[in-house]
């Protein structure tokens, strides 16, 4: 059995995190690739269920193991996790085993009854709900998430508020289309007694197909940085999931670890039990192993890929940059999926080196997997247009095709 590199006992917390921890502090678990929507930028190209999805009993065994490893919470996503018929059973199982759950949903099954359950003592503060919304208006949101998805998300937020659920999250992927709406997003969050959470668009999954069209322009990155500095400074709560640390090269660092945690403190379990270095790195190059082969702990602690990611990094071309200590060269997944070297600048490097690198020779890696319902859109950035024309049949592009609403 290979052992992880020895973690230093001194130095800052961040320096220690770089060597990896005995258990991840940010574990994402995608329960299913099935989804009622088919968002243009979905990081996991979700849509269709993988028939090899872990069974209820296998999922419970994973939760048991997370409890033993003292993983205090898990981010559940997908796909649309609430589509799994056993989702609520698994949620309760996790809560009863002291594994807190933060789950991301498009809101489709957050009915008044489910909202009341989430607000009830049964969940005991162990459950956090993140409603995905990528536009502060229906026009902007539905452009990427599909017709009707804005209304669905707002209905879910209303149901949670009416049920007395405290502090839901509104989770926004920042794009070229919505950077101008940051104040409106904040106002929406305030209206629903929720907290705003902003995350970065990565060119992963179907996001690779629309990244050129949707990733924020350089001047919008500056606008975002200034807005975040103003709203994360004096205690006003806007969460970022630590995803904008490449913006630190504008000046001061934003709150957070400011570190690529892939394989060190971050990882992903996918619906069939494959473990990847990061939720935004679903590709064979970042596949560490499968938890059905000896358990999650074995993969986390002994996979050669994770050992490699935990080894000291040189910084490569970025080491010469005066902002390297805060920016760290940016996001590994963003570099990989735009065909840039992993030891060079981030494609959105705020010093402009990313644009220079993007203009050079590069090969964009082919996706290892695709769960889209409408495969012809893969690698053809036309999906946004496809969403605007009527569905060709009931089962083709309707966001709710084949979906039976939850009656409970
Ligand atoms: S690869 Fe990117 S998204 Fe993943 S942990 Fe590193 S910085 Fe974060
Ligand atoms: S050159 Fe590298 S370290 Fe410097 S700002 Fe750009 S991505 Fe960050």
TrEMBL record:
TM ranges: none
Cofactors named for this entry: [4Fe-4S] cluster
Family annotation (Gene3D superfamilies): Aldolase class I (3.20.20.70)
InterPro entries documented for this protein: 4Fe4S-binding_SPASM_dom (IPR023885), Aldolase_TIM (IPR013785), Elp3/MiaA/NifB-like_rSAM (IPR006638), Heme_synthase-like (IPR034480), MftC (IPR023913), PqqE-like (IPR017200), Radical_SAM_PqqE_MftC-like (IPR050377), rSAM (IPR007197)
Catalytic reaction(s) noted: [mycofactocin precursor peptide]-C-terminal glycyl-L-valyl-L-tyrosine + S-adenosyl-L-methionine = [mycofactocin precursor peptide]-C-terminal glycyl-N-{[2-(4-hydroxyphenyl)ethenyl]-3-methylbutanamide} + 5'-deoxyadenosine + L-methionine + CO2; [mycofactocin precursor peptide]-C-terminal glycyl-N-{[2-(4-hydroxyphenyl)ethenyl]-3-methylbutanamide} + AH2 + S-adenosyl-L-methionine = [mycofactocin precursor peptide]-C-terminal glycyl-N-{5-[(4-hydroxyphenyl)methyl]-4,4-dimethyl-2-oxopyrrolidin-3-yl}acetamide + 5'-deoxyadenosine + L-methionine + A + H(+)
Any Pfam family hit: Radical_SAM
Domain Radical SAM core: 21-234
SMART domains registered for this protein in UniProt: Elp3 (SM00729)
Keywords assigned by UniProt, alphabetized: 4Fe-4S, Iron, Iron-sulfur, Lyase, Metal-binding, S-adenosyl-L-methionine
GO molecular function: 4 iron, 4 sulfur cluster binding; catalytic activity; metal ion binding
EC identifiers of the protein: 1.3.98.7, 4.1.99.26
Domain of life: Bacteria
NCBIfam families: mycofact_rSAM, rSAM_more_4Fe4S
Annotated protein name in UniProt: Mycofactocin maturase MftC
């Amino acid at each position: 059995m290979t052992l992880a590199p020895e973690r230093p006992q001194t130095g800052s917390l961040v320096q220690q995190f770089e060597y990896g921890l005995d258990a991840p502090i940010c574990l994402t678990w995608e329960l299913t690739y099935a989804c009622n929507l088919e968002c243009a930028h979905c990081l996991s190209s979700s849509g269709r269920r993988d028939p090899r999805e872990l069974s209820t009993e296998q999922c419970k065994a994973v939760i048991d193991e997370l409890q033993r490893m003292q993983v205090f919470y898990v981010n559940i996503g997908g796909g649309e996790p609430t589509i799994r018929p056993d989702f609520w059973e698994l949620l309760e199982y996790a809560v009863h085993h002291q594994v807190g759950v933060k789950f991301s949903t498009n809101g489709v099954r957050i009915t008044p009854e489910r909202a009341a359950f989430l607000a009830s003592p049964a969940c005991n503060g162990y459950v956090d709900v993140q409603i995905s919304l990528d536009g502060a208006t229906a026009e902007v949101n539905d452009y990427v998430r599909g017709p009707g998805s804005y209304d669905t998300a707002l209905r879910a937020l209303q149901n949670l508020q009416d049920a007395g659920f405290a502090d839901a999250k509104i989770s926004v992927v920042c794009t070229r289309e919505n950077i101008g709406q940051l104040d409106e997003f904040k106002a929406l969050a305030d209206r629903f007694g929720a907290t705003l959470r902003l995350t970065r668009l990565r060119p992963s999954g179907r996001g690779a197909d629309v990244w050129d069209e949707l990733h924020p322009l350089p001047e919008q990155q500056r606008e975002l940085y200034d807005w975040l500095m103003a709203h994360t400074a004096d205690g006003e709560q806007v969460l970022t999931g630590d995803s904008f640390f490449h913006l630190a090269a504008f000046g001061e660092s934003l709150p957070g670890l400011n570190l690529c945690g892939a394989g060190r403190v971050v990882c992903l379990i996918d619906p069939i039990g494959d473990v990847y270095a990061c939720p935004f790195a679903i590709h064979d190059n970042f596949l560490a192993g499968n938890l059905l082969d000896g358990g999650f702990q074995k993969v986390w602690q002994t996979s050669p890929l994770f050992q490699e990611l935990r080894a000291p990094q040189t910084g490569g071309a970025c080491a010469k940059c005066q902002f390297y200590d805060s920016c760290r060269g940016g996001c590994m997944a963003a570099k990989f999926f735009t065909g840039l070297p992993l030891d060079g600048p981030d494609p959105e490097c705020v010093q402009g080196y990313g644009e220079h690198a993007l203009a050079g020779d590069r090969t964009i890696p082919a996706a290892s997997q695709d769960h889209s319902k409408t495969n012809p859109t893969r690698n053809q950035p036309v999906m946004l247009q496809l969403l605007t024309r009527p569905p060709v049949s009931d089962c083709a592009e309707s966001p709710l095709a084949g979906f039976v609403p939850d009656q409970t």
